[in-house]
Amino acid sequence: MNTTDARATLEPAPPLTRSTRLWYASGQLAEGIKNESFATFLLFYYNQVLGLSGSLAGLAILIALVFDALTDPLVGVVSDRTRSRYGRRHPYLFAAAVPLGITFIAVFTPPGDLGQTGLFAWLLVFTVLCRGSMTLFHVPHLSLGAELSDDYEERTLLVTLRQVFSRIAGIFPGFAFLVLMRPSEAYADGRFNPAAYPVYAWICGLSMVVVVLTSAWKTRHRVPYLRAPTPPPHGVLRSIVTDSWQALHLRSFRALFLGSAFTFTAWGVAVTLGLHSGTYFWAASTDEMVIWGVGTAIGVFAGLGYWTRRATATDKKPVFMTGMYGYTAFVVVPYLMAVAGFWPARGSGPSIALWVIFNGTIAHFYLASAMVTGQSMMADVADEDALRCGRRREGVFFGASSFVTKLVFGLGAQIAGIIVDLVGLVPGTDPADVTDRVVRNLGLASAGALGLLVTISLLFFARYDLDRGRAAAIQAALRERDSAVTRTPTGPG
User: Fold this and answer.
1) Residues whose CB is less than 8 angstroms from the CB of residue 182 and which lie 6 or more positions away in sequence, other chains included
2) What would the DSSP string read from start to end of 26-62?
3) Which CATH superfamily is domain 18-218+251-482 in?
4) Using an 8 Å Cβ cutoff, are 132 and 106 in contact?
5) How many CB atoms neighbour CB 116 within 10 A?
6) Cα–Cα dist 389/383, whole Å
7) pTM (2 d.p.)
8) How does pLDDT run across 231-271, given as a tens digit for each residue?
């Protein structure tokens, strides 16, 4: 039986103001801090600083991501059907803030002398709890973005703003490199200083609490204009299975779902190996890692502006595909050129400069295309589903999408941990002492993972068929259907 959705009030929703868009998007800073921190430091800290084996560290990250991924559809379905004076999404935004900060701090403050088993358990437990707290915020926050606007282009703008704040989070690792990880008498390379990481964790943890609470509070006034939940036909657990299975019947969703699976597996390998590659393959200092980070920020911010305009002028799919091809080329080629000997000497000024230009700036300029269009396309898919089944299920779609990306990102992290062990990188090795064989194999592994997996992902993305014309027709049909629905107030009193 089909049911229909209505907005929560009789009044039409007023246009989003610039401040509302910014306050909403600023919430992404919290996830950006967590993602940048985990991607940059987590494997390196537990492996090279604390001495946990790469395989065990990668396994803990993988298991945590599996648990995290499993909660995404659950949170999505539960938030879809939540009724409260603060709507469907905001209760979870408020509830996530403090647990997120506490568990993030715990991840980077393990007690001393735990040994391999103890370190593995600590990393696993608190990474699971931290990721679970982030899920409580992340899935409702993504779903809220799809509900704030029905406009094809404004959705892309909201995603772009979210990505801007996500990339601003790169300031935090940069601060760690420049301030907390400066060389000292005890640690000539500050990346190996265990005292730097707990301080960093407190700064990040408190920042995330403030960001999440502020974003939720400053967007609560939109609750009366958001769609109210419709009576679900099944219980929560059955809905997770049934709704996800129905979603997979949509060609456009399958293309995004499966394409994202391979993309994020590759991404999991790349980012988890990022600090290892910068330290050992490129022989970059902490200052040079900051320069690389600045290069990626310049590339992303320039790309966000450029690709947003391109998506408006053309369509989302070609922008996405072009960007992924470009990103893959400018990440993979530098590794292969360095291994083949067509690159300046490892660790030299020209080597680092070219790495920043190609791998950092240009590659991330292209990567911004996927940041702009990916989640915006998912919002359009949710509209297609709403027209087909008569219910709004943004939480299902974003939950399922987040489920697969986290699951396979964890697989990529596990692969990265295995690579660290297989190439022979011994924990605590001085970059000056690493052998040419280890350097070569590390570069080939990084290039091979990205090249193969992203190529497969693009074959799936090519099957996405929800273009601007179809999206406009779907929106028109939804407006016609919703105009005949009785609206019932459910917002704050």
Assistant:
1) 190, 286
2) HTHHHHHHHHHHIIIIIHHIIIIIS---HHHHHHHHH
3) MFS general substrate transporter like domains (1.20.1250.20)
4) no
5) 12
6) 10
7) 0.66
8) 555 555 666 667 666 666 778 888 877 887 787 777 777 77
